[in-house]
Amino acid sequence: MRILVCEFVTGGGMPPSTPIPASLAHEGDLMLRALIGDLLDVPGVDVTVTRDARLAPLPPPIRSITVNDPRESWVLWEELSRTADAVWPIAPETDGAMERVCRMVEASGRRLLASHAEAVAITASKAATASALAAAGLPVAQTWRTADLSDPPWEGPWVVKPDDGAGCVDTLCLRDHAAWAHWRGAGDRSGFVVQPFVSGTPASLSMLCRDGQAWLLAVNRQDIVLSGPAFTYRGGVVGGVASSPELHALASGVAAALPGLFGYVGVDFIAGVGGPMILEVNPRLTTSYVGLRRATGMNVAAAVLGLAQEPMVIPGPVERVEPVHLSLEEMAWNPVD
Q: Which of 189, 188, 187 is CA-nearest to residue 152?
């Protein structure tokens, strides 16, 4: 089986005129290498990737195609998609990148090893995601588009972030109306959303999905620090939070509310005294994937390939979870100048 892994940030998706953001490239490379390792452990699988010429090449047996001009990446990805049996995209939701890759693969007629483009379109918007999950009766943080507000409809503090953002990029905590007014006046904020600051432990679900069903693999504790007004994601502990019937029900509820989700999906939430509060849904690999095999003993890529079969192969139960600490600062990244 020939699989094209299309990792957007490291594979030629970033503009040539500006440096690749180190934080996004670091996380993208970690996820890419973990996924490739899992795929190469599946008998009969061959892996092709594209690689930005500004980054170190990947070693054999991976077929690595260097992208010297990122302006030609989309044409290359489309050509490679048509020669593959399946495509596994890893891309940020920002500027519609993940949705565009998924629509390209769907148009090629090849197997998309990620969520359907329509589901990606919803989850790419934090406001649209919150609306869909709230309509399904799930506990989700109130989310308002800043373009619809002159002032927040509740007392602070508030969290502001890009509606289609990835990670903690441009995510800030505004503690009072003075901070809100200063932030609003500092630039165009029409593409942002605002949520109430929710107290509790930042966490995430790692799960598999197909046709409205979910299989919860691990619950992860996120290491997110607040320095001044800015949030920074530093890693976390995969399997660092005990699963529970409530969290299994939460995973099932998300999958049922967004039945186009497929394969690996991450759900960010706050574990508070009143129970879990969903913040967003990531229809793609998340950084937690890097430690998931060590934590669960499961080759998650192989499980996704099983879900893609007709009839699908139901993932086996996770027998044990041994917490795995991930520190982005400790995991090396070696870009090329």
A: 189
Q: What is the DSSP letter of 29?
A: H
The secondary structure of 138-205 as a DSSP string is --B---EEGGG-SS-SS-S-EEEEETT--TTTT-EEE-SHHHHHHHHHTS--TTEEEEE---SEEEEE
Whole-number pLDDT of residue 206 = 98
Given CATH 3.40.50.11770, say whether it is the number of domain 2-114: yes
pLDDT at 101: 97
| Run of H or E including 126 | helix 126-135
Q: Does residue 308 or residue 154 have the better pLDDT? A: 308
Q: Which of 18-32, 46-60, 112-126 has the highest mean pLDDT?
A: 112-126
- Helices and strands of the chain, counted as H and E runs: 9, 15
Class in CATH terms, 142-196: alpha beta
Let me know: does 167 contact 23? Beta carbons within 8 Å.
yes
Q: Look at the block and give the residue holding tokens 């690999």.
A: 285
Compute the mean pLDDT over every residue in the chain, rounded to the nearest whole number.
Answer: 94
Burial pattern 78-105, b for ≥16 Cβ within 10 A else e, equals: eebbeebebbbbbbbbbeebbbbbbbbb
pLDDT digit string, tens, across residues 97-139? 999 999 999 999 999 999 999 999 999 999 999 999 999 999 9
Residues 6+ apart with CB under 8 A from 294: 238, 322, 324
Q: Which amino acid type is present at position 90?
A: I
d(CA 105, CA 7): 14
* Domain 199-327 grouped into CATH 3.30.470.20: yes
The pair of three-digit structure tokens given for residue 209, joined into one six-digit string: 């999905």
Residue 180: predicted pLDDT: 93
Q: Where are the domains of the chain?
A: 2-114, 142-196, 199-327
